[in-house]
Amino acid sequence: MTTQHTLHTTLEQLCQSQYEGTTVEFKSNLDQAEDIGAYISALANSAALDGHECAWMVWGVADGTHRITGTQFDPLTRKIGNQSLIMWLQHKTQPRADFSFHTCHHPNGLVVMLKIHPAHSAPIAFDGIRYIRIDSHKTKLSDHPGKEARLWVQLGQQGDWSGEVIPSATLDDLDPEAIASARQRFTEYLLKNEPDSSRHTQLTQSAAAWDTPTLLNKAHITKQGRITRSALLLLGRDEASHLLAPADTKITWILRDASNQTVSSRHLGLPMLLSTEQAFRCIRNVTVEHLPDGTLFPVAMQRYDNWVIREALHNCVAHQDYRLGGKINLVEHPDRLVFSNLGQFIPPSVEWMLEHQSPPEHYRNQWLIDGMIRLRMIDQVGSGIRRMFQTQRERYFPLPDYAFNTIGAEHPRVEMTLSGKVLDINYTQVLMRRDDLSLQQVIWLDRVQKHLPLPPQAIRTLKTLKLIEGRSPNCFISAQVAHWTDQKASYIRNRGLNDHYYQHLVLEYIKQYGQANRKEIEELLLSKLPEVLDTTQKSNKIRNLLQAMRRDHLIQPKGPRSATLWQLTDMGLSKLG
User: Fold this and answer.
1) Quick one: which H or E segment has residue 102?
2) Rounded to 5 degrees, what are φ and ψ at 303?
């Protein structure tokens, strides 16, 4: 517990330092949320690089003199839209930063102290950018490759868990069927990467003649014949799984019905090379019909693309943090698949991966990933996520959704949802087939279809293109798109009507019946409010409408607050004519 005495002692020690250094930042009243987030990234990464227990950002201390002056900044009441500053900062940092605000009541004024813990599994990024401190200056980590490389070493990424040798494991701990499958897959990998087709027969014969140690060494599964953790994960017998403890080397498939009740499940153990295929075969990938290009003749296609399923499942295997002791989960719902694995998402963000079309410099399980590439389980590193998005776009299905959950959970977790439910065909086809829309813009429009929030930049861009209207978080397709997709009626219902229209209805009702309570007014208006609003938002809309009419002296309340009756004023009566 951080007491006032502890805060005063820490504050005194920080102020006595001649310079701010790499892990201390003094501010007077800085309250720009974006700047605070960037400082959290820089200070957390610097604390990890320098081996410090924590870093501090302090409000109410003069930068140059370190004199305590007090601050007006209050992080506990600060809001970013409808979200608290603290939650906003948590969601904007990736992996989730570990920090806490404290208030120190000093005789010279209130001091706010932000305690920031070091990055521990990957450098902290804010809004997709990783920062670092150079002396007392905040800068992008990517501008200092030497420091970036040292930081990854400090975070233990060079000590690749998946590449470590298990001294007690032998070839007898590997599954013969998995080894045979690995030989076939690795041969296919060699042929794919050999442009000279005249050598294909020779390569095939050579691969068939290799003994098991040679095969596994060449496929980067073992190290000089010694069994690595990757070898056991991909090819090991299930009874040898104890050699990987505390890792839980299972893939759990769960089938749930529309009410989210479990209908069936299977737990699939080692070897992962085979268990991923078993999990794939568990999925009820039924055939659905849709109408491409507006034709009247339906085309049958599978609910989920087979390649996308395998890529998502193999990504879970490749990027799971096995040291956390959790399973890989595949949950099948009637209209979607949910894949999840434990561990931080190492790249700065999914958007970063889509934009750069290249892998980040570091991965958690590099030896495992190299082996999976050679066994053709995953694409060349960095291209898989983008190809999943492109495949879903070409099929006119919703794009994958990623969620990174660390708040309130025991361990960090990556979850990917793949929808098998076709959205409005006309709307989807028009947007997906427009050549002038980038993949990023399609991703934003996909979020509009799913009624998910959009970042401010996305809203500005789509409004400039006249593709959406409305206010965040209740954006909806614009009149232009509605015209293209024959959704003009839906557009009007989403846009809603002018407030004067709603006011006129209320005034007419009160004139007819003399007065009206809140329930009667809601019954009058609810069905006429925009469909894009949920029940709570519609209720708030009616409350704000009544208060605006009261301020304009059109109506007045009568009776106690809990049972208010609204009546017309003279001004309201005259407005009706």
Assistant:
1) strand 99-106
2) -60, -40
Which conformational region is residue 114 in: left (phi greater than 0), alpha (psi within -120 to 50 degrees), or beta? beta
pLDDT tens string 58-105? 999 887 788 888 898 999 888 888 889 999 998 888 878 899 999 988
Q: What Rg, from alpha-carbon coordinates, does the chain have?
A: 30
Over residues 105-126, the mean pLDDT reads 88
Mean pLDDT in the chain? 85
* DSSP-based three-state secondary structure for 528: helix
Neighbour count for residue 367 (Cβ, 10 Å): 20
Q: Largest Cα–Cα distance of the chain, in whole Å?
A: 99
The Cα 80–Cα 11 span in angstroms is: 28
Neighbours of 125 (CB within 10 A): 25
Q: Output the CA–CA distances (angstroms, integers) from residue 122 to 115, 151, 362, in the order listed.
A: 19, 9, 9
Nearest 5 degrees, angle CA 530-CA 536-CA 538? 30
Per DSSP, the residues of 341-352 read EES---SS-HHH
Q: Is 125:41 a contact under the CB 8 Å cutoff?
A: yes
Beta strands in 107-178 (DSSP E): 109-116, 125-126, 129-134, 137-140
* Cα 63 to Cα 42, 313, 494, 529, distances in angstroms: 18, 50, 51, 52
CA distance 531 to 223: 61
Distance CA 86, CA 405 (A): 16
DSSP class of residue 226 equals: B
CA pair distance 523, 532, nearest whole angstrom: 18
C-alpha span between 543 and 521 (Å, rounded): 10
Query: Is the bond preceding residue 95 a cis peptide, omega within 30 degrees?
Result: yes
The burial class, CB within 10 Å (0-12 / 13-18 / 19+), for 376 is middle
**How far is the C-alpha of 400 from the C-alpha of 418, rounded, in Å?**
5
Exposed/middle/buried for 175, CB within 10 Å: 0-12, 13-18, 19+? buried
Q: For tokens 């003094």, what's the residue? A: 26
Distance between CA atoms of residues 98 and 93, nearest Å: 10
